[in-house]
# Entry
Amino acid sequence: MNPNVWLIGAGPGDPELLTLKAVKALGQADVVLVDDLVNPLVLDYCAQARLVYVGKRGGCRSTPQAFIQRLILRYARLGLRVARLKGGDPCIFGRGGEEAQWLTDHGVSCEIINGITAGLAAATACGIPLTQRGMAQGVTLITAHSQDGTMPDWTGLARSGTTLVVYMGVAKLHDMSSQLLAAGMAADTPVAMIERASLASQRECRSTLAAMTRDAAAFQLQSPAVLVIGRVAACQVFGAADAPVPAYAEPALRLSA
Amino acid sequence: MNPNVWLIGAGPGDPELLTLKAVKALGQADVVLVDDLVNPLVLDYCAQARLVYVGKRGGCRSTPQAFIQRLILRYARLGLRVARLKGGDPCIFGRGGEEAQWLTDHGVSCEIINGITAGLAAATACGIPLTQRGMAQGVTLITAHSQDGTMPDWTGLARSGTTLVVYMGVAKLHDMSSQLLAAGMAADTPVAMIERASLASQRECRSTLAAMTRDAAAFQLQSPAVLVIGRVAACQVFGAADAPVPAYAEPALRLSA
# Structure
């Protein structure tokens, strides 16, 4: 059965980090609901679709989630093929699960199409190997605070031996730093702060757990940014001159069968 | 500067989960070194390349890492465009960082191209929202034991409030279950065990922390498999009938500019 709705991860920014499956679905969609973190260049792949912007625009408040869900439902019930396009991966802090559940509860079938999540792309773009042997036991993707107001258990995270990758953390740098220091993480633990990962305008600031708040201020770090905290954050496994830069001057790649 | 070597993530199995960037690089490569976890259908994108298999084949021991690295270097120094193709993402338990560092140290430039990592793809394919609000503070990707023999800090992980996604854990189910129970994780914590994620032959077994070893044996769970441990592992946000199945009967998608 073909789904009525695709929930699609647009990846971190570079349009070439879209999956083939995402490009194929975007090319078939009649209407695409576009989140604010999606690079406009990705929309080149929406060949025939009406584009509906549902993210924060120009300082306005974000479109309410309930409204977005009702909009998807309305389009799907009109028989249209609907794509919901989100930055990164729909199920990594993207509310893809909530939207899929709500659609299923309302009798609309959907398919979730993975995207490269921003945290992994940001690290790769800076030459940081998140799970490097001997340096990390794994990697934890986390937000600095959840929408229900609860905080992560920083003590458990500090103990875990995993590299921490923090999404949506720019406004919480001081809190994070204090909590992780209080949890026993070393003051000189390396930190990398990566702004606009995978785009030509990407910037990175290397620091330490104790200095990150001050260094981020001097760097004028802006959202969206990803933080990498752990020994691997001092690595750069390839030279900066070799860092991939999207070649936007090239024509967009097209799919054919 | 164009890289001499691409370290490419092939994703979890479904060829449509390749990124455009990966397909483009594979199409330009002169030689492709292929890992054993790569779906052979992905190799359709290697238009002009000599294929060299460097993974475990038919019970033989894996090609030594040092040999693979020297092979990449030799091809690159011949002026060939070399692609190293790995399952999942090169930097999530894929040794991509080690290979990139080694090549850089030997004067060979390289670019790492992200892939959809198996753990995230497996969860999505089963309708499990890894970071669902109110159920998880984030997600931790981990292996059951590292190659240097050390174990993760299960107590820290149990405390972290994150969903645990365990790679290469089939042989360690009993150890993991015991350690997490000893660390205070509830016996009825949901567990999903997902074999061959994203392929048509994908199978999943839902269980609990206390019952996972017994249930996996009854299910005859085989590697490669991914485990999801945490409250979200009881979810299925879309119906099983709607689960995406790769349409291998279709011709492979091609890129054009």
